[in-house]
Amino acid sequence: MFAVHAVVDSDSIFSVVRKLKILGARDILVLPVERLIP
Where is the Histidine biosynthesis HisG C-terminal domain (predicted)? Predict the structure, then answer.
């Protein structure tokens, strides 16, 4: 099991999430970039 962090343009979030689910992704968390702490 592994985690992937990515930044995605806000206009394409839903299509990316849909594609990830088709590929088997689970527990997808969508946050605004301002909430991420480096």
Answer: 1-35
